[in-house]
Amino acid sequence: MNVNQKIIIYTDGAASGNPGPGGYGAVLMYGRHRKEISKAFRLTTNNRMELMAVIEALKCLKKPNQIVVVYTDSKYVSEAVNQNWVFEWEKKNFKNKKNPDLWKAFLCQYRNHQVQLEWVKGHSDNVYNNRCDQLAVEAYKSGIFFIDEAYESLLEK
C-alpha cells in the first residue's frame, strides 16, 4: 500500500419527507478498489443520513491514520467541520445542537484518520455523488428498514 495514496469517499443521505424514511449511500475508492455501502431507516432526517453516511464510510476503513478525502453535497456536514463549528459544539457538549449522538460518533471516526471534507454540488454532473444519491434512495425505497433509535427516542419525549 502506498502510504501517500488517498482514500476517496463520496457520501450522500436522503429522506422522503423530513422526517420520514431515509437512507444513506457511500462509495469508497482506493487505487483500483471500490466499495459501495448503503442502509435505510424507517424514520429519520436528511441531515442525519448525510452525517451517518460519512460515519459509516469511515468505519469501513481497516487501518488507522489513513489519508482520506470525503466528498459530500451536505453543507451541514462539510461546513460544520471546515468552519470548526463541530469542535466548538463539542466543547459545550453539543448543548442545544441537533444530532449530538451522530456528531460524537463522527468525531471518533474523524480522529482515527487524516480526513479532509470537500463540498460538491449535489444532483449535478458528479458521477460518484449521483451514485451515492442513487444508493441512498434505493435503500429507503427497498422497504428494508433499520430503526434510528436515537432519533426515534427523541420523538417519544
Structure description:
By secondary structure, this protein is an alpha/beta fold. The chain has one domain (7-151): Ribonuclease H-like superfamily/Ribonuclease H (Nucleotidyltransferase, domain 5), CATH 3.30.420. Helix content is 40%, strand content 28%. The chain is built from 6 helices and 5 strands. It has a 5-stranded mixed sheet. Strand 1 and strand 2 (20-30) form a beta hairpin. Helix 1 (46-59) packs parallel to helix 4. The model has no long low-confidence stretch (mean pLDDT 94).
Strand order of the largest sheet: 3-2-1-4-5
Major sheet summary line: 5 strands, mixed
Q: Kindly report how far apart the N and C termini lie.
A: 49 Å
Low-pLDDT windows of residues:
none
Coarse structural class: alpha/beta
The proportion of residues in beta strands is: 25-35%
Kindly provide the radius of gyration, computed on alpha-carbon positions and rounded to a whole number of angstroms: 15 Å
CATH topology: Nucleotidyltransferase, domain 5
CATH homologous superfamily assignment: Ribonuclease H-like superfamily/Ribonuclease H
Amount of helix: 40-55%
Q: What is the name of the CATH class?
A: Alpha Beta
Number of helices: 6
Give me the count of strands. Answer: 5
Number of domains: 1
Q: List the helices and strands in order.
A: EEEHEHHHEHH
- In round numbers, the mean pLDDT is 94
CATH architecture: 2-Layer Sandwich
Shape: globular
What is the compact description of this entry?
This protein is α/β, with parallel strands linked by helices. It has helices at residues 46-59, 75-82, 85-91, 100-110, 127-141, 149-156, and strands at 7-15, 20-30, 33-44, 67-72, 114-119. It is built from six helices and five strands; from the N terminus they run E-E-E-H-E-H-H-H-E-H-H.
